[in-house]
Amino acid sequence: MNPTRPTSPWPLLAGALAAASFVSMDATVKSIAPRYDAVQLTFLRFASGSLFALALWLRWRTAMPRRADWSSHALRCALLLVSLVGYFHALRLLPLAQAVAMTYVAPIFVSLLAVFVLGERPSRWIWLALAFGLAGVGVSLWPELQRSAQPDAAARLEGLIAAALSAVAFSGVMVLARRQAQRDALWTILLVQNLLPAALLAGPAAWVWQPLASGDIGPVVLIGAFATVGLLSLTWAFSHLEASRLAPLEYSSFVWAALLGFALFGEVPTLHTAASALLIVAGCLLLLRR
To answer: Domain of 277?
Structure first.
């Protein structure tokens, strides 16, 4: 019998790069978030990303999805819109590290969905991982519930709920990314997953539109660049490794979130935020066991 072939490190490195890129995008969004509605921020992210996606697609001109696959792309776009509008709203209300920590429940839900949608073999530890994840969410919510009489408590609680719901929606995005990566070319996925959400959000964004300050044009372009690198890395990684094995790499973004939050916004993660992230990460690590 031949020995088991070791897993290539490249999909794992691509997943880690995706996590770092997305947190960098989050920090850039947060830097301009006080001036714009979450819907407009989400539109700007996809509009900027479309510029990079279109340029890359024109270079390789890969085939468009088959007619039967468009419903899957539409569903992923809808989930992506729900996820990003909710998350960008959370970034306006929460410290960066706390918002990122709340998204860590996504890998656990990814593993659950991967079992039912993709038919992947579940880890024996999946239910314990879910319990750890929910406990982490509870630890993050508890201090906000205790300080309900303070002026900013309601806004922070709203941000935490928005971040958690965003994570659940994003778990669906990640599972569909795994399925689409097995069917469509990388450049096609990148193009569709930028242009379609931008088109869907154009009307709602126009309704809440605030004129874009000249100093914010650079950050908006940077948001598109970070998002493009993140999506390319994530989609390539999903085409080479199971979704449930890649998902736990998302927790590496907490380090970047803590560093960028402190460097850019003077934010220091609280003990509750660190404990919340630790519990959720512990749950994610359980998913690596078989």
So the answer is: 11-208+215-286
Q: What is the C-alpha separation between 238 and 245, in angstroms, rounded? A: 9
As a whole number of Å, the CA-based R_g of the chain is 19
Separation between Cα atoms, residue 63 and residue 201, nearest integer Å = 25
Domain for residue 1, yes or no? no
State pTM to two decimals: 0.88
List the one residue out of 238, 229, 246 whose CA is nearest residue 181: 238
Residue 6 lies in a domain: no
| Structural domains in the chain (count) | 1
Place of tokens 């990566």: 181
Residue 3 in any domain: the answer is: no
Model confidence over 17-48: pLDDT tens digits? 999 999 999 999 999 999 999 999 999 999 99
Tell me, yes or no, whether 182 lies in a domain.
yes
From residue 264, how far is each of 28, 31, 97 by CA, in Å?
Answer: 9, 8, 12
Rounded to whole angstroms, the Cα distance separating 46 from 42 reads 6
